[in-house]
Amino acid sequence: xxxxxSHFFSQLFASYSPEAYEINNxxxxxxxxxxxxxxxxxGLVIVGAIRFRSKKRPEExxxxxxxxxxxxxxxxxxxxxxxxxxxxxLRAMIEINTPVGNDPKPDIIIIAHQWWWDMRxxxxxxxxxxxxxxxxxxxxxxxxxxxxxxHDWWVPDLGRKIDAIPxxxxxxxxxxxxxxxxxxxxxxxxxxxxxxxxxxxxxxxPYEFNQWVNNQKQIPSQPNDSTAILGQMLFQKxxxxxxxxIAGTPANAHVGPDLxxxxxxxxxxxxxxxxxxxxxxxxLANPQKVKPGAHMPDFRFNKNQLxxxxxxxxxxx
Length: 317
Ligand code: CUA
Hints:
The protein is of the alpha+beta class. The protein has eight helices and twelve strands. A five-stranded mixed beta sheet has the order 3-2-1-5-8. A hairpin with a 2-residue loop joins β1 and β2. α5 packs across α8. The chain is elongated and about 100 Å long. The model has no long low-confidence stretch (mean pLDDT 92).
């Protein structure tokens, strides 16, 4: 029981980046002082109620009209507390602020969509979706945009929230002190599937990260399995390429997630399902059943077509 509670709190206030550390510390400072004030006020009320309770005296208790010293004290103390917290807050804001010049060169560009995340690495010319890989211990500049409505990027362990606003670019840092997977979500109500706009940040050692980059940069080899070839033909014959991109093929649209390396991702549909054959199949068979409201049309594929398509997609490692 104690372990569970202490685990809960250590997770609640865990910070895995300097920005998250600043925010959590500020929150804890507020929490502790607010706790002290609540205890003090409650204590005084209880003491007053007990000590000055009615003693069945016939005469009225002494009446007091004004006390300059007391009034100055109880004005001054809250004022000083507020000044103290103003300074602490300002300090934290400066620490996590992202000053960018006139021509910022972001390491990562995030474009929020209803209901998934387009993720780009302009320096590497990589485009992926929903699962962001970053190298550990490196402070990266991230630009956040929106393709439709207002969304909000939030990975609590790694720091602040940042709004994705149509027609505007916001900047923030992203950084992880230790390797691991950090989960986040869209934090601004953005429509039917707001709840399924999850984020996965995978912080890797520089070596692993470079391996990932090299793999993502590669154009996937042409399928040689006959089922996969049929799947590729189906992908090209249907209008898949009007929304999706697969490098090395005519499909080059970015309305929906880039599928060049879809098989290298652990989840599909922005965290809605794990990336398995069965899940991809059920998604393509009936998108509205799996993620109601999603902009993916229902192509009414038959069983064979589903099998071919999924075989092709699962080969895009
Ligand atoms: Cu996007 Cu909520």
